[in-house]
Amino acid sequence: MTNLIVIDCHDLGQHLGSYGAKTVASPNLDQIAARGVRFENSFCTSPQCSPSRAALYTGRYPHSNGMMGLAHDPFSWRLHDDEIYLAKYLQDAGYETAHLGIQHVTGFDNEADVRALGFDHLLEGHFAAEVGESAVAFLNQAHDKPFFLNVGFFEPHRDETGGYHVAPPDDSLGADVPPYLPNTPEARQEFTELQGMIHAMDRAVGRIWETLASLDLLKDTWLIFTTDHGLAMPRAKCTMYDPGLETALIMYAEPFGFTGGRVISELISHVDFTPTILEGLGIPVPERLQGRSYWGLLQEGDYEPRQFIIGEKTYHTDYEPQRAIRTERYKLIVNLEVDITNVPADIMHSPIYPQMIDQLTVTRPYVELYDLENDPLEQHNLAGTADVQSIEADLLHQLKAWMVATDDPILQGPIASPYYDRALARLE
């Protein structure tokens, strides 16, 4: 049986050197990508922490698994009682399971809830350096059965001030600003701070890799790195635009031949992750999972490529229901409430936010449609125009069909949050 290590982090998107971010110092992750497999079109199901992670680790969409908003107080969304987390599948299959660092699908401090996800061990560690050393300590222990180590990095999430102050800024390679943001001195300074946090995380990933190599564990281990959603920047996190949905996904596995610097270009969704892991490890894949295994693609065997991926958001800190469908060329977004600003509270602390406030505080149209080939920054809404009338109709039809097939509760009306029930109880 093959060991499994899954490393995830917050708010990274694809902001790594191996994905073309030339001023990001991420040599360890770039090296793993160069030696392993990198997915260039990997997307989350939701551009926000808890729903995206819940889909990643259950293989079911947020509206199906119950995680339609943030897990921490005062929002307190939870998985349905009958949902099964990846760790539980592996625990039941005979794996020793351990969680280390950040998770965001239960309350932050509820140890019993984290163990109930399927973890035998909860290891100590919060910021990158201590998480890396805790992972090293676990790997150095004797294990009498295969292990699953789930490592969650806080970095590069913004800190409690809304900034990036957990690690020193890094301008060793300069500071490029993505084209969907203004290239101002304030933006460049903030990106040096973001780069510093990414670099700190990358060093910790390097410690894990070095330990696997020194212990000769690479020949028996499937190592995976990914993130929950896009950067915590305006027009990224909490939006359905590509900078909000795109995710890094890198793998290395000598047991399966996932080596050699292969780049996979097919559309991949986070909801496909758990069924792929289960199939690859020889564990039965339940029919109720909504993702599609891409194990055949990894094996360079039979695989029917996805024609589209789906994005959904119901709640973040407010009720902001959106559903989206993305093909290789087009993105269609349906906004199901008015005044969706798509700006989380942490991003409002960014010095970039006031520089874009006129773009961000607008009422969204019912439908947005973008030609990603000719308009990769998603600036020109084509919805309602004659040239794309048939494309718009087809994407709306496919999105509606997916909502019906997955029993999306928003088809029955507005969705109340757990906070609503608690508040309503005060009236009794």
UniProtKB/TrEMBL annotation:
Pfam families: Sulfatase. This is Sulfatase. It comes from the Bacteria. SUPFAM superfamilies: Alkaline phosphatase-like. InterPro entries: Alkaline_phosphatase_core_sf (IPR017850), Sulfatase (IPR050738), Sulfatase_N (IPR000917). Keywords: Hydrolase. Belongs to the sulfatase family. One of its GO terms (molecular function) is arylsulfatase activity. The keyword Hydrolase applies. Residues 12-283 form the Sulfatase N-terminal domain.
